[in-house]
User: Which sequence fits this backbone?
């Protein structure tokens, strides 16, 4: 589940809201649910996992935070 900037264009929803709404449908067709978009804290990760995500991708926000801490 990823919005790839979709919210910027439409301002509708978030990946976590989509996961909450459609997790049961997705689980019928997928062994795992990976989610991406807007996860910046361990709490965000835990929430996504609680709602059914098998994997939480944290690319840019994670790298940005690490770089800020190093500077």
Assistant:
């Amino acid at each position: 589940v990823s919005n790839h900037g979709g919210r910027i264009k439409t301002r509708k929803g978030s990946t976590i809201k989509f996961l909450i709404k459609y997790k049961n449908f997705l689980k019928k067709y997928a062994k795992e649910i990976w989610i991406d978009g807007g996860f910046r804290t361990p709490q965000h990760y835990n929430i996504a996992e609680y709602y059914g995500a098998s994997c939480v991708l944290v690319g840019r926000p994670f790298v940005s935070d690490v770089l800020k801490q190093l500077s």
About this structure: The chain has a mean pLDDT of 82.
